[in-house]
Amino acid sequence: MDLNSPIIRVLSGIAISVLGFQMCRKVLPWVFANILGPSLLGPRVDIRKMGEWAVVTGSTDGIGKAYARELARKGLKLVLISRSLDKLNAVAKEIGENFGVEVRVVDVDFTRGVEIYEKIRKSTEGLDVGVLVNNVGISYSHPEYFLECCNSDPKFLRDIIAANIHSVTHMCSLIMPRMVVKRKGVVINLSSTAGVIPSPLLSVYSATKAFVNKFSDDLQTEYKDHGLIIQSVQPGFVATNMSKIRKPNIFAPSPETYVKSALSTLGIATQTAGYLPHALLQLVIHFTEAVLGDQIARNVVLKNILGTRSRALRRLAKEQ
Ligand SMILES: NC(=O)c1ccc[n+]([C@@H]2O[C@H](COP(=O)([O-])OP(=O)(O)OC[C@H]3O[C@@H](n4cnc5c(N)ncnc54)[C@H](OP(=O)(O)O)[C@@H]3O)[C@@H](O)[C@H]2O)c1
């Protein structure tokens, strides 16, 4: 074959243009959002200038507690909202003493009805809230087929949607009006990598997290010109009670490591894995889908999750 023939030269030109176009459209923004932006620029938002107070839901443990600590470290006063008053008081004391900021607590169960939002409204009335972290969320105890988990515990279906979806929409509707008036504010919504990759056997959980992504994305478009930043954060595994991972590792970092990394993406990415190894994981799965086809990627994930389910069921059987 003559490599200098006009047809080969035209085809090479097209291939290089397509590659260049894809680089500019997809690869460079990914590299900026996940590597260059957070490491070179750091957060492009000074959250201290957003307002005096931060409100964090699900803040007595895991990722929520780590957000609360980081925001207090930056000097923000806190409203911590969780279920157990004893744990809330203990965390409030710990953070107040460590960082010398005022900490208030509100004990509500986000699986309950709309009445809890009246209690939150009264507790946050008049506060200059600059940051809202919608972190509270619940998941399956282990991966399970939809019919198994909803038939054995029908209440769970209501609870997971109330805690993972209603909490986000109601908290936004409570806190955002004052942000819109002062034309500044940050809302961080905790989604999950499960919301952006195939997640069979976690179908209700992953669908609630896909909702959080979509809601945040459209809300950001609506309120960008009002000075608000709405970020959807999509962690992979983080070593918390929810994941049941005790020892942090590179792919399942401690909540503190995860949150420091996620906060460095503020103002750089509005939809983000928040942590480079998790962004790479999403990339590998999306690449597998593109190269091998959606069905093959889904089957690989299904096989993997079925393995996790079998191990969990064996563990449960031993415990009984
Ligand atoms: N960990 C992960 O691997 C991972 C991965 C992806 C996404 N996420 C998301 O990140 C968020 C935080 O997860 P996490 O792992 O940090 O969870 P976690 O360790 O289980 O902590 C959950 C926090 O939420 C509170 N909470 C739970 N149910 C509540 C309810 N019904 N009402 C009020 N508060 C409640 C808990 O308070 P109490 O102590 O009072 O129960 C606790 O403070 C969730 O939205 C989760 O979906 C986590």
Automatic annotation (TrEMBL):
InterPro entries xrefs: NAD(P)-bd_dom_sf, SDR_fam, VLCFA-Steroid_DH
Source organism, top-level taxon: Eukaryota
Cellular component terms per the entry's GO annotation: endoplasmic reticulum
Alphabetical UniProt keywords: NADP, Oxidoreductase
CDD domains listed in its UniProt record: 17beta-HSD1_like_SDR_c
Span of the signal peptide: none
Annotated GO MF terms: oxidoreductase activity
Similarity remark: Belongs to the short-chain dehydrogenases/reductases (SDR) family.
Cited PANTHER family: RH59310P (PTHR43899)
Protein known as: Very-long-chain 3-oxoacyl-CoA reductase
Organism: Drosophila lebanonensis (Fruit fly)
Record gene name: LOC115626689
